[in-house]
Each structure stands twice: as structure tokens, then as C-alpha cells.
Amino acid sequence: MDLALAQITDRVRAAAADHTPLRIRGGGTKDFHGRSLEGEVLDTRLFQGIVSYEPSELVVTARAGTPLAELEATLAAQGQYLPFEPPHFQRAGADGATVGGMVAAGLSGPARASVGAVRDFILGTTVLNGRAELLVFGGQVMKNVAGYDISRLMAGSWGTLGLLAEVSLKVLPVAPGEATLRFECNQADALRKLHAWGGQPLPLNASCWVQDAGVGTLYVRLRGAMAAVQAACKSMGGERMDNAAVAPDWTACRDQTLPWFAARPATHGLWRLSVPATAPVLSLPAAAQPLVEWHGALRWVQAPLSAGDALRDAARAVGGSAILFVAPRDDEAAATGQFDLESKALEQIHARIKQSFDPAGVFNPGRLSLHW
User: pTM of the prediction?
Assistant: First the structure.
């Protein structure tokens, strides 16, 4: 592992010297997302393995190229897991997601609204910056987080600030109680239910409303103490589903392999609308029926690129935002602009941070902005 890291460091140093762009890549499961994929591939899978794991301390440290499936299997053997449910985007039986890609993308699954995001579970990171310097931030306990929390800055940076070498994560025990409830209802009724439940002491963990063949259905997953889950099932009503039977559906929701996602026309992109959980049904273009997650805070919409302005306006009207998450299949190069910053002040801050970490601009150029 030391040799692998030394080789990667030498390559970054050489790239910075001659301004050769590098494309940091693990399993490539998220290549569909972002502005562009430029530069020579710098494969992080050369640097993998779980460095340390203390189940009693609820902390694990792993190298960036470690397969995410391997990490989750190790945690599961001890009755623990990553609560934010990072997407694997598994396709055709292949699962190449890595720990570094999980952190760099900063994407969370169905439970995000209840338990927090990837960044909330990062305790420390070891990062190779654009100067080929190996920097260590944070540690393995929460008390190590002081001053600028650089470790969490890595979450969602998409490899533009540096190459993640190692990451330390907080993990949690698997909840003893779990149940999924099913309700037939339209989107407005689903949102009203979720808003009402959100103000009550219920063990809400995840939710998904989807319309299939004209029938709207809300699924709500509960997790927590057995007594709390049982009490919630009685007070909330609905149809209780078999946990084993519905588990694959939650995984499919996480990885966007549900029939709703698979049915996306080739001319349509997948849009991600982030809005307040209390936002009502949005005024969307005709036939744009969303899939709603995160207790109402995340609305997925299938629509052509021409609907982009209407979707952004609809999200802004309720204090949210909209981005193109996956480009249309017949125009994959059209995913430009999805990370555009509307605020010039924010754009300048991002640019200064990028300059500090990667002055030569070699890491993932163009991935987040046309300017770096």
C-alpha cells in the first residue's frame, strides 16, 4: 500500500509540473454525473483495504479504493452499518462503488432526511493535494474536529480538491426494529401525511412516493426500538409489508433501479429537485410526475432539457433548487451547467478553495465548473 501511494504521489507531482489533467476514478459508477470527464485516469483502486475498525468505538478507517460493498459487509458482520445508505448505482450485477467515490460524490440514500448526509459521518481524512502533499485532517473521534472542518469539505467535492487516500467514518448499530408501511394516496395526500408525521415522535427513517399505472403509493420505512416501531405501526395505519420482501425495493430506490427510473425515455433527463420538506405539490411541466423521497424534500422528475428553466423556477418558488442529475441517453454530453452557481460570491469562494488545494488545476478539470 505504501508503494501504491508513492506511485500515485509521484504521478500527481509530475502532472502538476507539466499541467497534465488527471481524472480521479474509483469504480466509475458515477461517471454519468457531472459536466465532463477529462484527463488521464488516476485509478484509486490501487490503494484499498480497511485500515482499522473498532466496533466498540463505532469507527472505521478505510482506504479510498476499498470496495464499498466490502466495507458494508465488514460492518454488517458486527451488526453495524452506514446509516446514510450511500448509493452504489449497481448495474448488471457489477458493483464497483468505492469508499473514496462515496465521500467524493457526497450522495446519500433514502434515509438521508432522517439520519444525515455522508459529511455528517466523516471524522477524518487523509488527502493528497495538487502539490503532491499528503495532508491529514480530523481523526477518529469527534473531538478532533476543530477550526476549519476540511474533512467534511471533501464530501461532494467530486475529486476537484484532491485525491482521498483514507477516510475515517462514524458508523452505527443496526436498529433492532424495522417496518415498512404502504399507503395508496395521491401526491398531495402523501405530503400531508409526511408533514403531519414529521411533527410527531415517530421513528421515521425513509419514505418514497411513486405513481405507477395511475396509482399513487407512499412507502414509509420505520427504524428504531422495537416498542417504538410497533407503536408507530398502530398509530400510523397503512398496510405493513414483509421486511425481507421489501428490502430489495429500498435498495433499488437507493440505486435508482426502480421501474420508475428504468422507464425514463431516451429523450428525457433525470432532474433532482431539492426543496423544503414542507413544500407543497410543485407546479411542474405537463406529464412530469415526480418520485418523492426524503419526506418530501427530494423530488425526482423525468423531463427533457427544454423543461430545465420551468423546473428551476418551480424549485426556486418554494426556496429550493433543481439540477440535471442524469443527461438524456440520446444526448449524454448535454449535462453541462448542472453545477452552475447562481451566486458570484459563492463561485469566487469555490474558486479560491480550488486554488488553495490544486493550484495547477490538474484534478478533474471541468467536473464542477467550466472555470476549473
Answer: 0.90
